[in-house]
Amino acid sequence: MTATLETNALSWPQWQRAVLLALQTELQDIAHHLRLDDVDWASWQIFYEQGRTPRSAVARALERDL
Questions:
Q1: pLDDT at residue 26 in the model
Q2: What is the largest distance, in Å, between two alpha-carbon atoms of the chain?
Q3: Domain ranges within the chain, ordered by starting residue
Q4: pTM (predicted TM-score)
Q5: Which of 26, 48, 49, 65 is the most exposed, having the fewest neighbouring CB atoms within 10 Å of its CB?
Q6: 58 near 25, Cβ under 8 Å?
């Protein structure tokens, strides 16, 4: 089951910041210096449009929810 957001629960910029925090948490050994400008957000936007939570998007991107 995919964790999803209620429609418009987070704005795109809020969601991006939450994804960045989730990435930094999940990949703390290698991503602690990761900044918003370092992420290819065009690749992540599909997860936002699908209504995934930031944590769900990170899990999917890291292939943890297959």
A1: 84
A2: 33
A3: 18-61
A4: 0.69
A5: 49
A6: no
